[in-house]
């Protein structure tokens, strides 16, 4: 269902265009009509609209001004300008400022349909692209932590190439004073054998998040689980400011009192 707004200060033309749109696109379009730009903007503030068809010449606000204000509410909205021959050059200028297209009065039904089909096509393509980007982001959210955990495990055991080590150093500032904190989770190995993989990964994520939250005031930190010792978490911490001890913070902050902590070594 396409959501279309019509703005024209001439009531008869405004209602007429609305009726034409509803007739031409039966069942595929919802249309709101306004004769005052201010009322249309107020509606935009609280409602989603795909396409605006607005007269270019109105007393309180011209079409270009309305287009600019509408873009503040919805930057991706498609604007089609209604214009007479007298404002033709003005309408062409509007295309360079972001309008999708224009329609000359009196309206040609074939031209109107072609312009609207163009708008539908652009919106559909943009929505598809946005959906693809969101799916890629979700996949990255899944795969990047797995990749980083593999790299960090290799780093701890001194198996990273110089190039890969530089990538790690972009994530955590290794040139600053810091420590590696080793946390062993009591009973984690036994517990992990009784739950689904998804629940185990969610628990590991929450533990890493808790550690990051606990340390973030004084430290940059990055936590990951050992591939060799699955019940062991490694936290690399570098100092933001003096006056705190990461291992002590972890020991004091552990709500379950089940993380015996051992720290040592430089980063």
UniProtKB/TrEMBL annotation:
Residue ranges of domain Response regulatory in the record: 3-120
Modified residues (4-aspartylphosphate): 55
GO biological process, one term: phosphorelay signal transduction system
SMART domains, per database record: REC
Pfam families, alphabetized: Response_reg
Keywords carried by this UniProt record: Phosphoprotein
Function (record text): May play the central regulatory role in sporulation. It may be an element of the effector pathway responsible for the activation of sporulation genes in response to nutritional stress. Spo0A may act in concert with spo0H (a sigma factor) to control the expression of some genes that are critical to the sporulation process.
Protein name per UniProt: Stage 0 sporulation protein A homolog
